[in-house]
Amino acid sequence: MDAQMEIRSLWESMQLWFNEESVSLLFSVVGILLILIVGKILIVVLRKLMGRVFSKSRKINELMAKFLLKIVSVIGWTFVLLIVLTQMGVNPAPILAGLGVTGFILGFAFQETIGNLLAGVMIVLNAPFRIGDYVEVGSMNGTVRDMDMMSVTLATPDNKRVIMANKLIWGQAIVNYSYTDTRRVEMGVSIAYDSDVGKAKEILWDIINSYPEVLRQPAPVIEVNKLNDSSVDLVVRPWTKPADYWTVYFRFQQEVLEKFRAAQVEIPFPQVDVHMPENVPVPGLDATVPVKEALKS
Length: 297
Description:
single chain; alpha+beta; SH3 type barrels; Alpha-Beta Plaits; 3 domains; five-stranded antiparallel beta sheet; three-stranded antiparallel beta sheet; elongated
């Protein structure tokens, strides 16, 4: 009898568990899980398809493609969330209606965030740089590593990771050193006024022509740039590939010093010539004395 009572009690408990409301709740949970799984699969597939299309397009660079794919993910998950709310019996219409008022309030609270988002859109549309480009923005410079809807990540030459807000980048002048296949190296050399300018230029040409990194076209330029107070300033402007810029720059500085010393071409330092009269007047007397005696006294 005890065994029968336990079986009957267990059966009644199962009947209570599997009543209409419990089954409905179970189906709702399963339905929500299926919606999330299917939604994620569709978003992943859509991202892959659009990624292939973007990779074949000449008008869409890597930076723009990554930005657009992130927007697709956000929009896709928004639709999935609305479907889940409907499945849970929540009417999304009042929520969407309330977003108008809420959005107006949040617009003031998140002005910087919205500004970064809109600046990101402008950067994507105008494409002033690509992933891997070396850029200068304000006082910061580095290689572009990544970009999202809010910021751009740079890697500086000393291997620092710098994250700059899109609004900050778009509001300043952007210098892209990787935009073209060539870059001009700007270098200055100063010699003394009594040095042979022709000889100095010949040495500079020998140095530049010995570098395999220097391009023959556009042709290098070596000319007198300025007659300074203490020196004759020459400008040296070879063209290289962007990756060879610093190699040429640093090697040139050392070789100029060594070869000018060997050829006895003087590299001057700032100096001032002071011209003094031979005699100076004596205060209170109608007479003059030699400068050397006046200095001794």
